[in-house]
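2024-03-11 09:14:02 INFO receiving multi-entity request
2024-03-11 09:14:02 INFO entity count = two
2024-03-11 09:14:03 INFO echoing inputs for audit
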Amino acid sequence: MMELGNRVLWSLVAAALLAVGIAGLLAGSGVIGMSAQHTTLLPQAGVHLWQQGGIGALVGLSAVGAVLSLCGAMLVRAQLRTAGPAMADLVVPSRSDGARAERGRTAVSGGTIATGFQRDLRRIPSVQGARVRMSGDVARPLVRARIDVVAGADLQDLREEVRQSIARLAATSGAAPVALDVTLRLCAQRD
Amino acid sequence: MDLWRGDAMRVVNALLSLLLGLALVAGGILVAVEAVATAVGAGPFAIPVTSWASLLEHRQLHDPWAIAGFAAATGVGALLLLTELRPWRPLRLAIGVDGPTSWWLSRRSVEEQVQRATLAAAPAWHAAASVRPRHRRWEVRLRAVARTDARPAIAQAAEAGLARLGAPQESRVRLRIRPPRHRARVA
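2024-03-11 09:21:47 INFO inference complete, emitting structure
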């Protein structure tokens, strides 16, 4: 998402630069009339108006500054944030009237489930590395996985092994993922 | 120039946005502080508003440095707009969907595999592949420096490599072979 947002932002910035540049060149070279050439870069009244604006203008200006810096902070945060919120914790409810082992509350953090799946993927012989990110509801988890695979591996076999790993994940967490997004990267074989 | 079709631009855009964000934070705070300082009578302390305003109020659009500034804005804007709007190559290629799972393969990996298959199939000095997904197929451009009689072997190896990766059956390899400039001594 951030990729598209940045692309739109910088397309707009580029279009604005281009428009200002062309307009300035046309006016400055006298193409759209000789009087335009002598226009000053800043209207002579502008700054003085602001200086005479008094306390109201200054309060407005400081508000503009605050809004600008807020926008900047949001832009920075969007660049540094990697993904949406992680999955919530899995809580196995207690049964107070059940057997002794069923009493009490069991909670597993969402991150632990993702790490477990990641470790399971890394156990596949042709897998060199894996990174897993789980989000969404515990009952309807969404999974994104990036798997580094040895270049010579048979991808059909690998997909079957990943499928088995997903089945184990579903058995452990009690809910099958509703959507999985698996990206494979092929790495040069280690000698 | 393939690098500017996405791969480098993703990083450039993120860096530009990061810098713009930081500049906005710093500039916004500075403007707010200046305004407050002026309001309480301490006067502007970091931005000499009066001097740059009077400078801009006396410069006209036909001044050489104004023209140079507009020319620079036009150039930078045109270049940036072109690289943003040109179609970017995707980071990954779809290799199938089963049930809730969608499978993808990194585009760079596919290109490396095709290059490796080419270099293994025939004595080639250089191979460069670039993959682009088209409607339901991949279009592979493969440029190799090899003897022209190696063409069938290279084409076959590249296609076999693609099939092994699970590329759509209609995928095509457009092969361009350039003979080496000097006659190689092959033992």
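2024-03-11 09:21:48 INFO post-check: Chain A touches chain B through 76 residues (CB under 8 Å).
2024-03-11 09:21:48 INFO post-check: The longest strand of chain A covers residues 127-136.
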